[in-house]
Task: inverse folding
């Protein structure tokens, strides 16, 4: 017959508290793994819109130089690549919060219509990259009039 053990609810609460303290220390403790900048691959948010004449792609890439962004077109696939470098200087600073992402990125977007690659224009203003892709003539919608019978 197994021994009967007295249940001590505060011992369970104490064990749970120690486990939560350990998790808290792992996240906020001296190593501060959670607060290191994300030196991994990230992807900027994009908007793709279409009118009768063009497809426009807007990508949020704040804090970047235009020279660090590459744009290419392969068939109907628009590829945006770049690298956002960390601005931190090592001055023995203790960061309390780091949410900005750094590192290289690559976005591949399938365009909804055939575009004229030779007429694509890109501008960069206030952290937003705008890529205007004029449609090819055969991709533009054509109105068909109905003749009276």
Result:
């Amino acid at each position: 017959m197994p021994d009967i053990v007295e249940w001590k609810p505060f011992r369970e609460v104490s064990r749970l508290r120690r486990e939560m303290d350990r998790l808290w220390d792992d996240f906020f403790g001296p190593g501060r793994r959670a607060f290191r900048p994300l030196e991994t691959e990230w992807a900027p948010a994009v908007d793709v819109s279409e009118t009768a004449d063009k497809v426009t792609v807007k990508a949020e890439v704040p804090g970047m130089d235009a020279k660090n962004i590459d744009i290419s077109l392969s068939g109907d696939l628009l590829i945006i690549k770049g690298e956002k470098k960390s601005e931190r200087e090592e001055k023995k600073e203790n960061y309390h919060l780091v949410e900005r992402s750094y590192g290289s990125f690559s976005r591949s977007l399938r365009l909804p219509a055939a575009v004229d690659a030779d007429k694509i224009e890109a501008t960069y203003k206030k952290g937003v990259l705008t890529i205007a892709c004029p449609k090819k003539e055969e991709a533009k919608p054509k109105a068909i009039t109905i003749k009276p019978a």
